[in-house]
Structures are given as C-alpha cells and as structure tokens.
Write a structure and sequence with these properties.
Nuclear Transport Factor 2, Chain: A, 2 domains, 4-stranded antiparallel sheet, two-stranded antiparallel ribbon, transmembrane, NTF2-like_dom_sf, membrane
Length: about 240
C-alpha cells in the first residue's frame, strides 16, 4: 500500500476544503451573525436598564411629592389624656381653639371693655403704657396709627394727656353692651372726669373686631393671648 499517496491525498483534500471560497463565506457569515446577536443583546440590556432607571426616577419623584403633600396638609396635634382617679378611665381632653373662645360672649365682653378702658380712660401713671403697648396690641394697624395716635398723641392739644395732665383723671363706666354680630359691638358708656376738672360725658361706641393668628412677642402675648384686634372704632355723643 502506498502510504505516501494516501496521506498526500488527504492533505490535498483538506487544503481544497480550506481554500474553498464557499466554505469561507459560510464561516464569515456565521461569525457576523454571532456578532450581530451579541450586539442586539447588549442593546436590549441597555434599553432595559434605562427603562428601569427611568421608572426608579419616577417613583422617587412620586414619593417626594407624596411626602411634601402630607407635610403641608397633615399635622400632628398633641393631646392630653386625663385619668379619672376613682375609675381609672382615660379621657382625651379636647383643646379649646381660638374659635371656641371667640364664640364665648364673656370673652368678647372682656376684650371689648379692656380695649375701651385702655383707650378712653386716663391716668397719668398708666397713660404711656396704654398708649404705647396695650392699645397698640389690641388694635389693627389702621386703627392704631391712622386714628388713635392722632387723637391721643402727645402733640395733639385735645388729647387727654394735654387736657388733664397730672391734675385730673378720666374713668369709663359701662351702661350697656350688645353684639349685633359675632365680630361687632355697640356699647353705651359714660366718661367721668375727676380732679381739677369735673365732668361727665355720655358716649355711644360702635366697634368691629376679630381674632387673628398674630406674630407677637412674649410681652405682647401676655396682653393679648387670643389675638383680639379692633378693626373699626367709632365714638359719638349719645344724644347726637
């Protein structure tokens, strides 16, 4: 057997197969398809990752918006629990709001008369405090600066400070008070001047007021704890 020819024949066959252009094109096409598949797979994974990141970003925005909404609309109100000594039954004590106080006629009467006395009464010892503090805290800005300070200021010759000085004083006597509405009052008073000057004046007052959430100092809050403010004040002779 001629082994030389046999091996030569096989070698020639292999060379012929490798050098065959059809086989080369087939292998090149398979390699290209494999690369395309890997590229497409990478593109799909990238797109899925971007979609996932976008969804996470949207969820974060929704969560932040929800937290902000709850922060602005919800509040945590403290409460007090009272334990009944004998039975031990707990009871939640409901806090009283400004609206609750403002609906109380006794509270309204108190602040109305506190304002009138601070404004219309005159004692040389307390005038400065009433003028600079009490009436200011209990008045709206328009009532205090446009009305009260002009009438009761030190530079006005007709103000009680200049009329009565330290020789006389003026007191307020209540005759009647009615509330036409929740935020208005009609009051009949007499102003009695005693000392070096003696006289009595009958007056009728119409005033409007309300309760406000005011930003006040601790000292002012002691004068006006509920934010009561007079928004309109008119006083005339009762017989006029």
């Amino acid at each position: 057997m001629n082994f030389k020819k046999f091996f030569k024949k096989n070698t020639d066959a292999n060379e012929s197969k490798e050098n065959n252009p059809i086989n080369f094109l087939t292998n090149n096409k398979e390699l290209k398809n494999w690369k395309d598949d890997k590229f497409q797979s990478a593109i799909v994974q990238r797109n899925l990752l971007l979609i996932g990141l976008l969804l996470c970003f949207i969820l974060i925005l929704v969560a932040l918006s929800t937290i902000r909404y709850l922060k602005n609309t919800q509040s945590i109100d403290p409460f007090v629990i009272e334990i009944e000594e004998k039975s031990g039954v707990p009871t939640v004590v409901k806090p009283l709001s400004i609206e609750t106080y403002s609906a109380n006629e006794s509270i309204k009467r108190y602040f109305v008369m506190k304002y009138i006395r601070a404004r219309e009464e005159y004692y040389s010892e307390t005038f400065n405090r009433n003028f600079n503090d009490v009436v200011r805290v209990l008045s709206s800005s328009s009532v205090y600066y446009s009305d009260y300070r002009n009438k009761f200021g030190y530079n006005n010759p007709s103000s009680p400070y200049n009329l009565y000085g330290s020789g006389s004083y003026r007191t307020v006597g209540l005759k009647s008070i009615i509330f036409p509405s929740d935020t208005s009052a009609q009051i009949r008073i007499n102003l009695t001047v005693s000392g070096q000057i003696n006289m009595v004046m009958n007056k009728i007052i119409y005033m409007e007021f309300d309760y406000f959430n005011l930003n006040m100092s601790e000292q002012d809050r002691l004068i006006n704890p509920l934010g009561f403010q007079v928004t309109l004040f008119r006083m005339n002779d009762e017989n006029s």
